[in-house]
Amino acid sequence: MLEVDGLVKAFGGFRAVDGCTLRVNKGEILGLIGPNGAGKTTLFNLIAGALQPSGGTIRFLGEDVTPLSTDALFHKGLVRTFQIPHEFHRLTALENLMMVPPGQPGENLFANWLAWGKVQRVEDEVRRKAEDTLAFLELSHVAHERAGNLSGGQKKLLELGRTMMTDAKLVLLDEPAAGVNRTLLRKLEEKILILNRERGYTFILIEHDMEMIEKLCHPVVCMAEGKVLIEGDFHTVRSDPRVLEAYLGETPAAIERNEFEHDPKVEELREQELHKEDL
To answer: Do 78 and 199 belong together in one domain?
Structure first.
């Protein structure tokens, strides 16, 4: 489903992603782990089209999508969530979901006057789908609550619901466990498994919660210093000495990288790249 070959992203002289290669097959939940500064989020930004690579290729469903924008990839079924949810906080949970499907005729001013019947039919269909999505996520009781008032865990569930409104084929989940209490985290895990096993969703999951990685993910990929260090099942990866060194060791290369990672010039280059993509 997804093929990443020799992907590189350089910020000045610093390579945040350095020759990364991986494969994601249809129906997998691939776990992406690694210490802070390993390049995981930069890799996500490259795959999702938020950043353009300095080298390498990305293929999705057999098509070279390396130069495509986030919006173009969204329409092809590749969708990402964020560690900090990006909800429309003044809209209700229901309205947040209803806004997601593209191409709704109600977005056209003239259609609201000249084809109001069609506009109403599509809006009713979208509303029903949004209500069904909230019911699946067990969020029906907050359907008419402003999204900004939801708890951290409810916002993460709502983010997952937004991917369901697109009928996504591949979902990139960026630290879904962050800021979520254990009860809602178990619910989130349950919903991800149902979407994967019963509805055919494929996931890539960045996460520091190893309990969640163990429950959900196969295979597991560990990154360090911008490269893929090892790929395998959870227990093989967890026990590999290179993984332990990447997480716990303070090798000269790791120290040098950590200094580079917090270099203001590197951060400025990274912000400039992201800003260009937003324009």
So the answer is: yes
